[in-house]
Fold:
Amino acid sequence: MNNFQYKADYKFFLNKLAKGNILLFKKKYLKIFDFRDPSLKRKEFNKIRNKVFKELILKHGKKCQLNIHPDCDKVKIYDVDHYIPLSTNKLNKELRKIVAEKGKKVPSQSFGSNDISNLRIACKKCNSFKKHKVII
Structure:
């Protein structure tokens, strides 16, 4: 189960990413997870953002890999998106049914890494629309 805080989180990603195939999950997907403090990961990402952006453009071209917003690609400005967000509260809301206290947000968990396999090109519309959601 590696460093997942909850077994249910591990099962969620195992099923979503690898259709329950543990060997595939370990071989292909574990490197996209990093459970360290999100602020540390953001600082690291800011240092590599431009280099990674260029690598992704060379590999995929200037084309949004998300395609989730109705106006996708209308604004030809692109950014780097984390496939698995650095942090999210989605699983706390959906799996554990945690409700935010008045005036507060549901606590987030740290998940995504800055590994190139967890990064993709996204147009500004799709990247803003996705925010910290897990869209698989």
